[in-house]
Amino acid sequence: MDIKSTKIELIKTILAIENDEFIKKVADFINKEKVDFWNQLSASEKNEIKKGIDQLDKGKKVSYDSFLNKIS
């Protein structure tokens, strides 16, 4: 069975379940499995983002056109 068929069968099974507690456990499990991109970043990437946010908070910003001129 391919993954698409497996998903459809899983949905059918979940829809047929009447046990509220079990459905809550499944929902909790699925929510815990969602990936937060922040956790996938390296420490240096996180530091660079924090540095950029800090600069913006201090009013240090560059216009988009200026940025394009700078990198081209």
Overall description:
The chain contains five helices and no strands. The chain is an all-alpha fold and 72 residues long. The protein folds into two domains: 1-34; 37-72, no CATH class. It has helices spanning 3-16, 20-33, 37-40, 43-57, 64-71. It is 76% helix and 0% strand. The protein is elongated. The longest helix is centred in the C-terminal third of the chain and has 15 residues, at 43-57.
Secondary structure topology:
Elements: H1 3-16, H2 20-33, H3 37-40, H4 43-57, H5 64-71
Sum this structure up briefly:
By secondary structure, this protein is mainly α.
Keywords:
76% helix; elongated; 72 residues; single chain; mainly alpha
Give the count of structural domains.
2
Report the sheet with the most strands, covering strand number, pairing sense and barrel closure: none
Broad shape: elongated
The gyration radius over C-alpha positions equals 22 Å
Mean pLDDT: 91
Q: List the uncertain runs.
A: none
**Ends: how far apart?**
50 Å
What is the β-strand count? 0
Class from helix and strand fractions: mainly alpha
Number of helices: 5
Q: What is the chain-wise order of helices and strands?
A: HHHHH
- The portion of residues forming beta strands comes to under 5%
Range of helix content: over 70%
